[in-house]
Structures are given as C-alpha cells and as structure tokens.
Write a structure and sequence with these properties.
This protein has 10 helices and no strands. It is an all-alpha fold. Helix 5 crosses helix 10. The chain is globular.
C-alpha cells in the first residue's frame, strides 16, 4: 500500500470514529474510501466492519458512567444485537460478491433514507403518541433485531436509526442514548466479526490505518462532544450520502 493511501485511510478513520460516537453514519466515509483504494465491494464491506469496531468500543470508555447507570436493563438489547449481527453476517457471505455488488446502490440508498428520516420519523411518532406513553418493549426489541440484521449485512445508517428508536422508547438523555447505541453496535460488530473474520475477505493492510484512526476518533469525539455542532455534522454527512448514492447507482446500477 502506498504511504499516501495509508494516510488518507488513517485520516478517514479518525473522522469516522468521531462521527460514529456522535451521530452514526461513519460507513458513508470509510466504505467509499476502501472502494477508491481498490478493494472489491464485498471485501471493502467486510474490511470496513472489522476496522470500525474499535470506534464504538473506545467511545464506551468515555460513556462508562452512563452505562453503569443503565446496566440493569441492557441484557435483552445486547442479545438481539448479537444474534442480529450473526444472522446479517451469514446472509452477507451467503449472497456472495456478485449479488452484494448489485445490491450496493440499494443498500446505500436505504442507509441514506435511514440517515435522512431518522429524526423526522421520531418527531412524527412523538406527535401521534399519547403523552407519557412509550412503545412496548417487545416491539422495540423486534425492531432492533431487524435493524441489527441489516447492520450485520451492511451497517451504514444503523446508528442514527437506533438513536431515534431509543428516543421514541422514552430515552430523553442524548448521552444515555449514545452510550446504549454504542454498546449495542459493539455487540453487533463482535457478532459480525465471529462470522466475517474467517471468511478470507479481510484486507488487513487496509484495516490497520482505519482501526487506529477510528479508535482515536471515537474516544476523542466523546471527550469534546458538547463542543461539536452535531447538526452541522449531520447535514454534511447527509449531503455526502446523497452524492454517494447517485454515484453508486451510476457505477453499479
């Protein structure tokens, strides 16, 4: 790998780790970077999986107080995250390179829609909901399971939709919601790694710069989260996601 490519991937990892910790959507940055570096789509997707996992893991260190306060009711959420991640990873390998490449534009479009409409859906559901009423925990877990299967298959957009779901379920603190979201994505990623690591589709020289960068970015972003204009981050990521969707349909459609 050229030094320039390594530095670009490292810088992309730093930004992606921060975006993951704050708002989600880091795969919008790292997946196209790996494609541009010359990896085929399936290998890029799996390499991206392995590389970005520490971004959420490092963020957990900064959220340890919030997680300690919630530890009594996280077990079921972690279970559906892990099982959904396993199933999504199995589906990814079962579909294979050719089918995944054809699905890439539609996956990115789905992720873009998730990213764009997550807050709007939350607002509309809040307006229709009886004050003080929260959705059934059972239905929340079912929704989380479906979302995690998608996350195990591709993953982009999972974070922002999960944040919206947690808010709809009654979580009023953005810091508590971010802590739970990061922990669930870590469980999802760990399950995916069990399936994907032995697949032979991991480009390790591309993992390293993203791995280190996302670790630094994930922890650093949470330490300064109150100074980061989250709205500006979301708007910038959404504009990039729309451009990426258009490009993916032109290239793979």
């Amino acid at each position: 790998m050229e030094v320039f490519t390594l530095l670009i991937l490292f810088a992309g990892g730093v930004v992606a780790g921060g975006v993951t910790a704050v708002a989600g959507g880091s795969s919008f940055l790292t997946f196209p970077l790996l494609i541009a570096a010359g990896l085929p789509p399936l290998t890029a997707n799996i390499t991206n999986w392995i590389a970005l996992m520490p971004g959420n893991f490092m963020a957990l260190a900064a959220y340890r107080e919030e997680l300690r306060a919630m530890r009594g009711h996280l077990r079921a959420h972690l279970l559906v995250s892990f099982v959904g991640g396993l199933l999504g990873g199995v589906l990814l390998l079962w579909t294979g390179e050719a089918r995944f490449e054809k699905a890439v534009p539609w996956l990115i479009l789905t992720a873009t829609v998730f990213f764009a409409l997550g807050e709007w859906i939350k607002t509309r559901l809040d307006a229709l909901r009886t004050p003080g009423q929260t959705p059934s925990r059972r239905w929340l877990l079912v929704f989380e399971f479906v979302l995690m299967v998608y996350g195990g298959y591709f993953g982009a957009g999972v974070g922002i939709v999960l944040l919206a779901a947690l808010a709809i379920a009654g979580q009023t603190s953005i810091h508590m919601a971010n802590a739970q979201k990061n922990l669930m994505v870590v469980a999802l990623s760990a399950a995916g790694c069990i399936v994907l690591l032995p697949s032979g589709h991991v480009a390790w020289w591309y993992v390293l710069p993203l791995f280190v960068g996302s670790s630094l970015g994930g922890y650093g972003a949470v330490r300064f989260i109150r100074r980061i204009p989250a709205r500006a981050i979301r708007n910038g990521m959404l504009a990039w996601a729309v451009l990426l969707t258009i490009y993916s349909f032109w290239k793979y459609g």
